[in-house]
Specification:
2 strands, 72% helix, mainly alpha, globular
Length: 232
């Protein structure tokens, strides 16, 4: 079994942890954490599909043209529900609308088109290039939104910040997005022989981030309905 396939298997496993917790406690979770649980179900399916493609030597890059805006929308919807300031809420809505619009333009005109016309029919182009630019932009926005939320949590310290699901989710997103930005910088500078090492390190960080997400979901499950009005 090659190294890349092992990395994908590990990624699927760690993605399944917060997904299982979210599904198990779904009925007791508040709306924001339910959205996060739905995201992890979608994330798990994407990772599992990627694993399947490694076994048949297929191409899964096309799916990220759809997954990236979905992930962005759900994650920012979670943070939207945690904001108490209207200006931040409006900014998040504008970011979601703007990002989805950009993803559509990028997939249709900048990268190889996701859809192609063939014999008068609109078909899915499964050999499209990877959508690096939207992912880079989303990671930068994730860092900003997660950092802002963490700062507000610290400022409005309600006792123990570690008892707030928002703290763990924000920390997880900040960790993942920061490492992703570093990953994209290094992947363009290092030799192809070392890309696997950088990919392994990136997925190790991703595994830690998923554990942090899982902790946030567990805390939200224990709080149940008491967590509904948590805003910062």
């Amino acid at each position: 079994m090659d190294e890349f396939r092992i990395i994908v298997i590990v990624a699927v496993f760690f993605t399944s942890i917060p997904m299982i917790i979210g599904l198990f406690g779904y009925q007791k979770l508040n709306n924001s954490m339910r959205l996060l649980s739905i995201l992890f179900v979608i994330m798990f399916l994407v990772e599992a599909y990627g694993l399947y493609q490694t076994f048949i030597f297929g191409d899964n890059r096309w799916i990220f043209h759809f997954y990236t805006p979905i992930e962005f929308t759900l994650l920012l919807a979670v943070f939207y529900k945690w904001q108490s300031l209207r200006v931040i809420k409006r900014m998040i809505i504008l970011l979601i609308i703007g990002f989805i619009t950009f993803c559509i333009i990028n997939s249709a005109f900048i990268d190889n088109s996701v859809f192609i016309w063939l014999n008068g029919s609109l078909l899915l182009n499964t050999h499209v290039s990877f959508n690096y630019l939207p992912i880079k932009i989303s990671d930068i926005i994730y860092v900003a939104v997660a950092s802002l939320t963490l700062i507000r949590i610290f400022i409005q310290d309600k006792g123990s910040i570690t008892s707030e699901p928002a703290f763990w989710v924000s920390a997880a997103l900040l960790l993942f997005a920061s490492s992703a930005i570093v990953f994209f910088v290094f992947i363009e500078l290092i030799s192809s022989q070392r890309i696997v090492l950088i990919w392994i390190l990136h997925n190790m960080v991703n595994a830690v981030a998923n554990i942090l997400y899982a902790i946030g979901l567990i805390i939200a499950y224990r709080k149940g309905s008491r967590a509904i009005n948590e805003v910062f």
